[in-house]
Design a protein that fits this description.
Elements: H1 3-26, E1 27-30, E2 33-39, E3 45-49, E4 52-57, E5 59-68, E6 71-79, E7 88-93, E8 101-105, E9 114-116, E10 121-123, E11 132-139, E12 143-151, H2 178-188, H3 192-198, E13 201-202, E14 206-207, E15 213-218, E16 228-233, E17 238-244, E18 250-253, H4 261-272
Antiparallel strand pairs: 1-2, 2-3, 3-4, 5-6, 6-7, 7-8, 9-10, 10-11, 11-12, 13-15, 14-15, 15-16, 16-17, 17-18
């Protein structure tokens, strides 16, 4: 075989293998049929089962097939794409001698990752301080139902004495301390959720020469708009919070006149400069 024919043969083999791989990735056998994921001319992806469309979105991905009791359930992730909201979970199952059934967990801005047990799939939300959210559960018999409402609660019995800032990976972790949480509620009132959200994207705590720990952060996907600051003075059992007000200034709790100079300077060098 000459070089030209060899190259043609290799090219044909590569295309064949690539086509087989693409077909395998976009077709998922399930029950007596198969799911397929196709793409439209507008780049939207479509999930179908045996040719019947189930759901579509600009982000669509196969997760896994799990067995709950004696029933298999296929899980997919679907969403609008981009980074504004996470995907939702599509649950598909086929009871014996029945048509395929589906359920869509979460809301328009995504769903928690599915937590799989032998008898059910739970969708347990991650909560920021001051928030509450619904917990959904799926079972083969009941489908997707509401299990209850989960509210953020600090760890009972924790105190200033048990607070170890070195163990906190993120500033919002500090709110799990009961003493810190109660003081934050008193200081921030109805601003608690806003400030906690503003601390979500962060590089963690830093320490000043005085021993006071501080951290700054921003709202996910919106850094520079409502950045927040938190400082913990464990020795004197005090907290300091600040957040950009959207008009080029900051709000502070307590008033800035009550802040130690080094804490105020740290805040000014982080969120106020933005």
């Amino acid at each position: 075989m000459n070089c030209r024919n060899l190259n043609l043969a290799l090219a044909t083999l590569i295309l064949t293998l690539s086509g087989a791989q693409a077909e395998e990735e976009s077709s998922i056998p399930f029950a007596d049929g198969a799911f397929t994921i196709s793409e439209t001319d507008s780049m939207e992806k479509v999930l179908s089962y045996n040719g019947t469309e189930i759901v579509r979105g600009y982000f669509l991905d196969y997760d896994r097939i799990v067995e709950i009791g004696t029933v298999e359930a296929a899980l997919f992730q679907v969403g609008a794409g981009g980074n504004a909201c996470g995907p939702r979970t599509v649950i598909a199952w086929k009871p014996e001698d029945e048509e395929l059934k589906t359920a869509l967990a979460g809301d328009d801005c995504g769903s928690p990752s599915p937590a799989i047990t032998d008898s059910a799939i739970y969708f347990v939300p991650y909560l920021l301080p001051g928030t509450s959210a619904e917990v959904q559960v799926w079972t083969p018999d009941e489908g997707l139902t509401l299990a209850g409402t989960l509210s953020y609660t600090p760890q009972p019995g924790t105190s200033w004495d048990s607070l170890n800032i070195d163990d906190l990976a993120y500033p919002v972790d500090a709110f799990s301390n009961e003493a810190v949480y109660k003081m934050a509620q008193t200081l921030l009132g109805n601003k608690l959720v806003d400030v906690a959200t503003g601390l979500s994207v962060t590089d963690g705590f830093h320490k000043l020469a005085s021993g006071i720990a501080y951290a700054s952060g921003c709202v996910p996907h919106a850094c520079g708009s409502a950045d927040a600051f938190m400082a913990i003075d464990k020795a004197n059992r005090k907290l300091y919070f600040a957040q950009q007000d959207g008009n080029g200034g900051v709000e502070a709790w307590p008033a800035l006149s009550e802040w130690p100079e080094d804490v105020r300077k740290a805040m000014q060098e982080t969120i106020e400069k933005n």
